[in-house]
Recover the amino acids of this structure.
């Protein structure tokens, strides 16, 4: 997979989980890395695990006014942006009726507006290059709603609409767009999720405990990028729910209502 050698790959949410795993794997493939999240110290730890040229760029997806400056810094460091991986985001664990509207707004601000905003800041660079690949880490919650995830699912559904449209529009500029739909992955996403009042959920879901590793997910994503797949799936048997919903919708809802949100 020599196509990643010396390419500039920008990963948000790179301080842990899938983002961290992707950074290490891309480093082993010889890519130049831009690692972003709000947690500078954690990014430094990830950078030490990457045997390649790495640029640490702290970034808050709730501050879109900083995106243009961030893009300029990346270009100053590496001259090009070949692959943007929108991995940063936050989840939720609370019933819709118990979730304050500000929590819904915050998830939309980070997961949708933050992701779309950074993409729009990078897009002119890729258009000028007449090349590039934009990858966004969605979720199975971007395919169907689930218990305790009303705001999270809404933000991920919004991502899908935006990036499916973007894919059609940017074909003429030789820019590829891939959406990733992970199932249950062993990360700290549920611990960092917001409760209905906006506080941290602070607990690891059983679904996450039994999920595949972030490293396995990262490899699935890289394989999908190489193949320029529009949709990339990674996970276990829960991925069958996508096909069951499509072809057997009555069975899908019968199965889903017997699940739980944890």
């Amino acid at each position: 997979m020599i196509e990643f050698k010396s390419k500039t790959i920008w990963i948000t949410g790179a301080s842990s989980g899938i983002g961290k795993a992707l950074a290490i794997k891309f480093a082993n493939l010889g890519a130049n890395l831009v690692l972003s999240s709000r947690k500078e110290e954690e990014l430094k730890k990830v950078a030490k695990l990457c045997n390649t040229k790495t640029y640490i760029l702290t970034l808050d997806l709730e501050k879109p006014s900083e995106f243009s400056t961030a893009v300029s810094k990346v270009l100053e460091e590496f001259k090009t942006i070949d692959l943007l991986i929108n991995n940063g985001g936050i989840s939720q664990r609370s019933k819709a009726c118990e979730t304050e509207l500000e929590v819904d707004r915050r998830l939309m601000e980070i997961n949708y507006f933050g992701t779309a905003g950074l993409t729009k800041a990078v897009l002119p660079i890729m258009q000028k290059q007449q090349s590039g690949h934009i990858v966004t880490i969605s979720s199975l919650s971007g395919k169907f709603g689930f218990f305790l995830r009303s705001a999270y699912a809404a933000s991920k559904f919004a991502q899908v609409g935006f990036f499916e449209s973007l894919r059609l529009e940017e074909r003429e500029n030789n820019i590829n767009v891939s959406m990733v739909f992970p199932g249950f992955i062993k990360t700290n996403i549920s611990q960092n999720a917001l409760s209905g009042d906006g506080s941290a959920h602070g607990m690891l879901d059983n679904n996450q405990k039994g999920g595949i590793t972030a490293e396995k997910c990262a490899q699935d994503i890289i394989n999908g990028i190489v193949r320029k797949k529009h949709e990339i799936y990674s996970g276990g048997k829960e991925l069958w729910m996508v096909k069951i919903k499509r072809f057997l919708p009555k069975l899908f809802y019968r199965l889903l209502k017997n699940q739980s949100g944890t």
The chain has one domain: 2-256. The mean pLDDT is 95. DSSP finds ten helices and seven strands in the chain.
